[in-house]
Amino acid sequence: MQLNPVMLQAAGGGLFGGAGGSGPLFLMVGMFVVMYFFMIRPQAKRAKDQKKFADSMNSGEQIVTTAGIHGRINKANDDGTLQIEISRSTFMTIDRSAVSMEMTMAARKKADAAAGVTTTATTK
């Protein structure tokens, strides 16, 4: 014997046990709150951190673009672009928004770790 949702509602006083229809409302509000705290809020925080990172870049810093291009900032232009040196006397102009905060931080950590290993190895 198969029971369809109409029979279950008639027998049990609704899907939520006769809660008067407020059950689905609480469920929807709860889902929105969970979605806000786990998806929307962290994404907004990440975007804010990325913007602050892009605005704080100065000449001489090593960066990595979202396309994976490694370079050093040669000049920060007034129009929101950066002139980067990717090889000796080879320059590119990119937007500040094209610099990846995560990839740049990872490259800096890797360079710092490599520098720490070489200085430790040479002191022994």
Q: What does this protein structure show overall?
A:
By secondary structure, the chain is of the alpha+beta class. The protein has a domain at 58-124: SH3 type barrels, CATH 2.30.30.140. Helix content is 52%, strand content 19%. The chain is built from three helices and four strands. It has helices at residues 5-12, 22-55, 101-123, and strands at residues 62-64, 70-76, 81-87, 90-95. The protein has a four-stranded antiparallel β-sheet.
The H-and-E topology, N to C, reads as HHEEEEH
User: What overall geometry do the principal axes of the alpha carbons give?
Assistant: elongated
Residues in helix, %: 40-55%
End-to-end separation:
80 Å
Low-confidence stretches: none
CATH architecture group name of the domain at 58-124: Roll
Please describe the topology of this protein.
Blueprint lengths: L4 H8 L9 H34 L6 E3 L5 E7 L4 E7 L2 E6 L5 H23 L1
Antiparallel strand pairs: 1-2, 2-3, 3-4
Core attributes:
124 residues, alpha+beta, SH3 type barrels, four-stranded antiparallel beta sheet, 52% helix, 19% strand
In short:
With 124 residues, the chain is of the alpha+beta class. The protein has helices at residues 5-12, 22-55, 101-123, and strands spanning 62-64, 70-76, 81-87, 90-95. The protein has a four-stranded antiparallel sheet.
